[in-house]
Write a structure and sequence with these properties.
The complex is a heterodimer of chains A (about 110) and B (about 110). Chain A is mainly beta and about 110 residues long. Chain A contains no helices and eleven strands. Chain A has strands at about 5, 10-15, 20-25, 30-40, 40-50, 55, 65-70, 75-80, 85-95, 105, 110. In chain A, the strands form two sheets. In chain A, strands 2, 4, 5, 6, 9, 10 and 11 form a seven-stranded mixed β-sheet that branches. A four-stranded antiparallel β-sheet of chain A has the order 1-3-8-7, with no helix packed on it. Chain A is globular. With about 110 residues, chain B is mainly β. Chain B contains no helices and eleven strands. Chain B has strands at about 5, 10-15, 20-25, 30-35, 45-50, 50-55, 60-65, 70-75, 85-90, 100, 105-110. Classes of the chains: A mainly beta (about 110), B mainly beta (about 110). At the A-B interface, strand 5, strand 9 and strand 10 of A face strand 4, strand 5, strand 9 and strand 10 of B.
Amino acid sequence: DSGVTQTPKHLITATGQRVTLRCSPRSGDLSVYWYQQSLDQGLQFLIQYYNGEERAKGNILERFSAQQFPDLHSELNLSSLELGDSALYFCASSVEGLNTEAFFGQGTRLTVV
Amino acid sequence: GIQVEQSPPDLILQEGANSTLRCNFSDSVNNLQWFHQNPWGQLINLFYIPSGTKQNGRLSATTVATERYSLLYISSSQTTDSGVYFCAVLPNYGANNLFFGTGTRLTVIP
């Protein structure tokens, strides 16, 4: 158990819908990262938050947004879902930046039908 | 951006065999991690190893940062070792995310 908790584990939804993925980082970790793993793109970085503030953005679509709350949990919001958004979404956390070890949650498997 | 290449892409082993997985990267890095993605999709931390050598049971890893590569050794492989092994690096040019290689898919047959 990495200590990073993601919910839900599985999600099936229809095209055009909106979903929210939730992540609780390890106790004491201030940084949260979101990654997307699809079959054709591998593991892609989406966005990073540090202590409630956005720190870095990767290949995150405009239809996607995220936030980190005062209790340090984070949510990734995916809207106007398309079939191509089907993927495994991971949250990771680290104490500070990535000069320290990052730990990944078990992922949320999103299927858009 | 930094290029991370892993080899071999696929590996099939008989249970009990040893193997070496390689990760090459194109720029200097501040962090390198090895992960095992099991058949259920979980990413499990194996090593945090920006340089040097570490061992954990049947697994060990070596990173030679000056030559831009890392090796993961698996000895006496077991069927539970099956899955995909990823290395991920943090470039030292100011990036804030880990760049993942394309992985090595390991299948251990009994």
